[in-house]
């Protein structure tokens, strides 16, 4: 695909599942530049386990965007957004479309594809892209990541900051998540953190456990990932408190689905879901 951004299988899978969220605005233009072909076989396999799994991804991504939008609109004065391990999500464009006057800068980090992503931003949203910087950084290297963020010249440690850590806690040890997130603590706890996580099976209804086990089993086998990292609510709260968070809140999939769709079709109770979104002041 000419002028497109190639995605790895898992990234392509996630974005294919979330397609319905990117129907308008700058995000739709960005999405049209993504080559999702690498995830086709992976998606077919996952669909055989749970044909409605796109609802899970749409709930997660929609809810994180909702929380991020609330954090930006509620900030005192212009804020800045840091999206760690950002992948190919156009969240930056979605936030700038909604709150152009409230965001001074958005900085995205990832280990690959950042130059190409910046180019696509410039092509589809030239004005917004001037406030976005995509930088190469590995979250396993905490100080290196923070140094790369500072090197953009756009990050102000004194400015209210929203930190988004989406879709990554599953793949890295808790010490890595704790280390990178703790870099954004502020004395007044004026910053906001949003992240998602996978629950251990014991917190999920027995008749639903096959879904998360099946989906993650396919991803492990096809993409050679190590074991998935899970967090109980207590473990997540302990990790976030160790990172400097206060006012930690957890949101279950039934809450996300109800807010997004107005009903609970797939997630009637807390125990029907296996993904949580957590927030904290940091």
* Proportion in helices: 40-55%
- Average residue pLDDT: 95
What pattern of helices and strands is seen along the backbone? Answer: EHHEHHEHEHHEHEHEHHEHE
* Poorly predicted regions: none
Number of strands: 9
Write the layout of secondary structure elements.
Layout: E1 5-6, H1 9-17, H2 25-31, E2 34-35, H3 40-49, H4 54-74, E3 79-83, H5 91-98, E4 103-110, H6 114-124, H7 126-129, E5 132-136, H8 142-151, E6 161-165, H9 174-181, E7 192-198, H10 209-223, H11 233-242, E8 246-251, H12 253-261, E9 275-281
Parallel strand pairs: 1-2, 3-4, 3-6, 4-5, 6-7
Antiparallel strand pairs: 7-9, 8-9
Please, could you describe this protein's structure?
This protein is α/β, with parallel strands linked by helices and 282 residues long. The chain is built from twelve helices and nine strands. It has helices at residues 9-17, 25-31, 40-49, 54-74, 91-98, 114-124, 126-129, 142-151, 174-181, 209-223, 233-242, 253-261, and strands spanning 5-6, 34-35, 79-83, 103-110, 132-136, 161-165, 192-198, 246-251, 275-281. It has a seven-stranded mixed sheet, sandwiched between helices. Strands 1-2 form a two-stranded parallel ribbon. Strand 3 (79-83), helix 5 and strand 4 form a beta-alpha-beta unit. Helix 4 packs across helix 5 (91-98) and helix 4 crosses helix 12 (253-261). The model has no long low-confidence stretch (mean pLDDT 95).
Q: Main attributes?
A:
alpha/beta; seven-stranded mixed β-sheet; single chain; 282 residues; 12 helices; two-stranded parallel ribbon
